[in-house]
Amino acid sequence: MIRASLLFASVIGISASGLSQAETVSQATLGALAQSYTFGVVENAPGSCRVTLASTPVRHALGRATRPVTLNSACQKFASLRGVARWSPTSGASIALFGGAPLHEIADFSPVQDATGVYLRGGFAGDAHIYELRPRAE
User: Fold this and answer.
1) Would you say 25 and 106 are in contact if contact means Cβ atoms under 8 Å apart?
2) Which of 23, 37, 53, 101 would bridge 133 by S-S if both were Cys, CB 3.0 to 4.6 A apart?
3) What is the pLDDT averaged over residues 96-111?
4) pTM for this structure?
Protein backbone atom coordinates (compact mmCIF):
# COMPACT_ATOMS: atom_id res chain seq x y z
CA MET A 1 0.00 0.00 0.00
CA ILE A 2 2.75 2.44 0.94
CA ARG A 3 4.77 1.59 -2.17
CA ALA A 4 1.71 2.06 -4.39
CA SER A 5 0.94 5.39 -2.71
CA LEU A 6 4.50 6.60 -3.25
CA LEU A 7 4.39 5.60 -6.92
CA PHE A 8 1.01 7.27 -7.36
CA ALA A 9 2.27 10.42 -5.59
CA SER A 10 5.40 10.58 -7.73
CA VAL A 11 3.38 10.12 -10.91
CA ILE A 12 1.12 13.01 -9.88
CA GLY A 13 4.18 15.23 -9.64
CA ILE A 14 5.41 14.11 -13.05
CA SER A 15 2.08 14.39 -14.80
CA ALA A 16 1.09 17.74 -13.35
CA SER A 17 3.49 19.43 -15.75
CA GLY A 18 0.83 20.38 -18.27
CA LEU A 19 -0.68 17.21 -19.68
CA SER A 20 -4.11 18.07 -20.99
CA GLN A 21 -5.10 15.31 -23.40
CA ALA A 22 -5.93 11.75 -22.45
CA GLU A 23 -3.75 10.53 -25.32
CA THR A 24 -0.64 12.27 -23.98
CA VAL A 25 -0.72 10.79 -20.47
CA SER A 26 2.54 8.98 -19.76
CA GLN A 27 2.73 5.22 -19.33
CA ALA A 28 3.83 5.75 -15.72
CA THR A 29 0.69 7.78 -15.00
CA LEU A 30 -1.52 5.27 -16.78
CA GLY A 31 0.14 2.42 -14.88
CA ALA A 32 -0.46 4.15 -11.56
CA LEU A 33 -4.12 4.89 -12.35
CA ALA A 34 -5.12 1.58 -13.97
CA GLN A 35 -5.72 -0.54 -10.89
CA SER A 36 -8.39 -1.73 -8.48
CA TYR A 37 -9.96 0.72 -6.00
CA THR A 38 -12.47 0.69 -3.19
CA PHE A 39 -15.27 3.17 -3.86
CA GLY A 40 -17.29 4.99 -1.22
CA VAL A 41 -18.54 8.24 0.24
CA VAL A 42 -15.73 10.45 1.60
CA GLU A 43 -15.18 10.10 5.35
CA ASN A 44 -17.15 6.83 5.57
CA ALA A 45 -15.40 3.55 6.28
CA PRO A 46 -14.28 1.87 3.06
CA GLY A 47 -16.95 -0.49 1.82
CA SER A 48 -16.91 -3.55 -0.37
CA CYS A 49 -17.56 -1.75 -3.67
CA ARG A 50 -14.58 -2.45 -5.94
CA VAL A 51 -13.92 -0.43 -9.10
CA THR A 52 -11.23 -1.67 -11.47
CA LEU A 53 -9.82 0.64 -14.14
CA ALA A 54 -8.36 -1.31 -17.08
CA SER A 55 -5.31 -0.04 -18.95
CA THR A 56 -6.20 -1.21 -22.49
CA PRO A 57 -7.82 1.57 -24.55
CA VAL A 58 -10.98 1.10 -26.60
CA ARG A 59 -11.89 3.67 -29.27
CA HIS A 60 -15.53 4.63 -29.63
CA ALA A 61 -17.36 6.41 -32.46
CA LEU A 62 -16.04 9.86 -31.53
CA GLY A 63 -12.45 8.64 -31.84
CA ARG A 64 -11.56 9.27 -28.20
CA ALA A 65 -9.79 6.44 -26.43
CA THR A 66 -11.44 5.33 -23.22
CA ARG A 67 -10.73 2.32 -21.06
CA PRO A 68 -13.12 -0.24 -19.54
CA VAL A 69 -14.32 -0.01 -15.94
CA THR A 70 -15.32 -3.13 -14.02
CA LEU A 71 -17.62 -2.88 -10.98
CA ASN A 72 -18.36 -5.67 -8.54
CA SER A 73 -21.93 -6.38 -7.36
CA ALA A 74 -21.46 -4.35 -4.15
CA CYS A 75 -21.31 -1.20 -6.31
CA GLN A 76 -24.99 -1.52 -7.25
CA LYS A 77 -25.95 0.39 -4.08
CA PHE A 78 -24.43 3.56 -5.59
CA ALA A 79 -26.95 4.87 -8.12
CA SER A 80 -24.49 7.33 -9.69
CA LEU A 81 -21.92 4.61 -10.28
CA ARG A 82 -24.30 2.19 -12.03
CA GLY A 83 -23.97 3.87 -15.42
CA VAL A 84 -20.16 4.00 -15.44
CA ALA A 85 -18.69 1.92 -18.26
CA ARG A 86 -15.42 3.62 -19.28
CA TRP A 87 -12.71 5.89 -17.94
CA SER A 88 -9.98 8.10 -19.34
CA PRO A 89 -6.93 9.70 -17.70
CA THR A 90 -6.83 13.49 -17.84
CA SER A 91 -4.30 16.10 -16.80
CA GLY A 92 -2.64 16.04 -13.41
CA ALA A 93 -3.32 12.31 -12.85
CA SER A 94 -7.05 12.94 -12.72
CA ILE A 95 -9.61 10.68 -14.37
CA ALA A 96 -12.92 11.14 -16.14
CA LEU A 97 -15.65 8.50 -15.88
CA PHE A 98 -17.98 7.89 -18.83
CA GLY A 99 -21.36 6.22 -19.26
CA GLY A 100 -24.70 6.47 -21.01
CA ALA A 101 -25.76 6.20 -24.61
CA PRO A 102 -24.27 7.99 -26.36
CA LEU A 103 -21.19 7.66 -24.19
CA HIS A 104 -20.51 10.93 -22.31
CA GLU A 105 -18.51 12.13 -19.32
CA ILE A 106 -20.45 11.75 -16.06
CA ALA A 107 -17.81 12.34 -13.36
CA ASP A 108 -14.34 13.69 -12.66
CA PHE A 109 -11.98 12.46 -9.96
CA SER A 110 -8.76 14.22 -8.95
CA PRO A 111 -5.87 13.11 -6.73
CA VAL A 112 -5.72 14.22 -3.11
CA GLN A 113 -3.54 13.12 -0.22
CA ASP A 114 -4.24 12.54 3.44
CA ALA A 115 -2.46 10.72 6.26
CA THR A 116 -3.26 7.34 4.66
CA GLY A 117 -1.88 8.14 1.20
CA VAL A 118 -2.91 9.41 -2.20
CA TYR A 119 -6.38 8.64 -3.56
CA LEU A 120 -8.90 10.02 -6.06
CA ARG A 121 -11.85 12.21 -5.01
CA GLY A 122 -14.79 13.43 -7.08
CA GLY A 123 -18.48 13.49 -7.70
CA PHE A 124 -21.34 13.06 -10.14
CA ALA A 125 -23.68 15.74 -11.49
CA GLY A 126 -26.94 15.76 -9.54
CA ASP A 127 -25.46 13.79 -6.61
CA ALA A 128 -24.67 15.78 -3.46
CA HIS A 129 -22.15 13.23 -2.16
CA ILE A 130 -18.40 13.44 -2.65
CA TYR A 131 -16.84 10.07 -3.39
CA GLU A 132 -13.37 8.56 -3.21
CA LEU A 133 -11.50 5.87 -5.05
CA ARG A 134 -8.81 4.44 -2.78
CA PRO A 135 -6.21 2.03 -4.13
CA ARG A 136 -6.92 -1.44 -2.78
CA ALA A 137 -4.31 -2.91 -0.48
CA GLU A 138 -3.02 -6.09 -2.08
Assistant:
1) no
2) 37
3) 93
4) 0.79
